[in-house]
Amino acid sequence: KQEVTQIPAALSVPEGENLVLNCSFTDSAIYNLQWFRQDPGKGLTSLLLIQSSQREQTSGRLNASLDKSSGRSTLYIAASQPGDSATYLCAVEFDSGYALNFGKGTSLLVTP
Amino acid sequence: SQTIHQWPATLVQPVGSPLSLECTVEGTSNPNLYWYRQAAGRGLQLLFYSVGIGQISSEVPQNLSASRPQDRQFILSSKKLLLSDSGFYLCAWRSGTANEKLFFGSGTQLSVL
Which of A44, A96, A101 to mutate to test the interface with B (most CBs of B within 10 A)? Predict the structure, then answer.
């Protein structure tokens, strides 16, 4: 079964810290991987998409990396701010599939 | 630019009542459309996806159904709701082109009582 796992489930950091969110997946045959942000009671917003041929993608203070061989991706957030508080979800499109498989997310709280 | 509309935002329905949730996409043609459900502690579960009008694929056997009567319209339905149907329902779309981002609607919080 193709699964996506995110650890930790929750994380609390003081404002200004750099942090890393982790995502692992069970099958290295992937098409792409996306990181999303979800605010409470809202839909998901796509942050970054990494194609299987890429190693990383950057957008502002966010950097996502992909290591297909080890089945891992990380989302690095630099100089965290209280506005970064949200749930971050990792989603993988496997080669054998047609839709994204989501992890359960990491709930991030950045305290002032 | 492309936008996705999903309604209603919240819905409270009694057990056994019917359901109809609607999703429309603007600014694109022939999108791939998806219905996901998010239940507390369970992550997002893919319910249905569609690659074209009248083409629906179901991921999870249940008492829900989906239809795509028009290119940019996706409807989630049930004839009789169960308590277990409660959850946050999300519609999403993406281009049929490879390696495109997935865009979500704002979601419908359904409570079945």
Answer: A44
pLDDT digits 0-9 by tens, A65-99: 999 999 999 999 999 999 999 999 999 998 877 78
Rounded to the nearest 10°, the torsion over CA B49, A53, A63, A44 is: 0
Query: Residue A104: its chain B contacts at CB < 8 A?
Result: 41-43
Contact between chains at A34 and B49 (C-beta distance less than 8 A): no
Q: How many residues are recorded in chain B? A: 113
Which amino acid appears at position A70 of this protein?
Answer: S
Question: What tokens does B102 get?
Answer: 């997935």
Check whether B3 has a pLDDT greater than 80: yes
Q: Is A61 left (phi over 0), alpha (psi -120 to 50) or beta?
A: alpha
Strands, DSSP E only, in B71-107?
73-78, 87-94, 103-104
Average of per-residue pLDDT values in chain A: 94
Helix/strand/coil for A65: strand
Measured at the alpha carbon of residue A60, what is the angle toward residues A88 and A77, in degrees to the nearest 5? 40
Report, in this order, helix, strand and coil percent for chain B, each rounded to 5.
Answer: 5, 60, 40
| Confidence (pLDDT) at B61 | 64
pLDDT in tens, B46-102: 999 999 998 999 887 678 999 999 999 999 999 999 999 999 999 999 987 777 899
Tell me if chain A has a CB within 8 Å of the CB of B40.
no
